[in-house]
TrEMBL record:
Swiss-Prot/TrEMBL keywords: Oxidoreductase
Stored InterPro entries: Nitroreductase, Nitroreductase-like
Keyword Oxidoreductase: yes
Name by which UniProt lists this protein: Nitroreductase
GO molecular function terms attached to this record: oxidoreductase activity
Species this chain originates from: Neobacillus niacini
Length: 221
């Protein structure tokens, strides 16, 4: 795939085919992804790839916690509020997404199933969890973001789809137990990987982007 197409053709996939991804293909994706830049080539990322019985164990544990209404305990806290102009973008995106799925405001059952899908890891056959040593600073968090984007672009280049998901790290105690992640590593984010179920309603929505002039500020050019 041409590199310039990756940016427009990669988008978040929220439902996957029940089709395994080979370890050989995942190694190819990760080999490309670890070329991501980092401060002084520190390469601070710790990467845990869950598939097979491990991701199924996580799915079961997450669904139980979700259905029991357990509080989220992410290692990296989620925002409690957003600036108004960003909050309006979020609300617009949520509204467009639900409309594309045919879910109306008062359809509590459909909304519940949609939310539950997050805690099933979207049915993906692979979950990649990205971690950092607890002693590292925000600069390493920036580096991890660079790696995450490289991972998703590499996946697309190799014929796979992906979804970064804050919900996937809502219950880090399950991830630590199932994947044997040490306490000195923060579990930052999970990225689901697999083959898209392109016909599923959850995958019909592709989010828009704000006009470039709204976020790009040229100076001296």
């Amino acid at each position: 795939m041409e590199a310039t197409k990756l940016f427009s053709e990669r988008h978040t996939i929220r439902k996957y085919l029940n089709k395994p991804v080979s370890k050989e293909l995942l190694i190819k994706v990760l080999t490309d992804a670890v070329r991501a830049p980092s401060w002084a080539n520190s390469q601070p990322w710790e990467i845990y790839v869950a598939a097979g019985e491990k991701i199924e164990a996580l799915r079961l544990a997450y669904l139980k916690s979700f259905q029991n209404h357990e509080a989220h305990t992410q290692d990296l806290p989620t925002p409690k509020e957003w600036p108004e102009y960003i909050d309006s973008r979020l609300k617009k995106s949520f509204a467009e997404s639900f409309k594309s799925m045919g879910i109306v405001r008062d359809d509590d059952k459909a909304r519940y199933q949609n939310w539950k899908n997050n805690y099933e890891f979207f049915g993906a056959p692979v979950a990649v969890f990205l971690c950092l040593d607890t002693t590292l600073s925000d600069w390493s968090l920036f580096d991890l973001g660079l790696f995450a984007n490289s991972l998703m672009l590499a996946a697309k280049a190799h014929g796979l789809d992906s979804a970064p998901a804050a919900s996937s790290v809502s219950y880090p105690h399950h991830i630590r137990k199932v994947l044997d992640i040490p306490e000195n590593q923060k579990i930052i984010v999970g990225i689901m990987v697999g083959y898209a179920d392109v016909e599923h309603p959850y995958n019909q929505y592709i989010s828009s982007r704000v006009p470039m002039e709204e976020v790009v500020h040229f100076r001296g050019i």
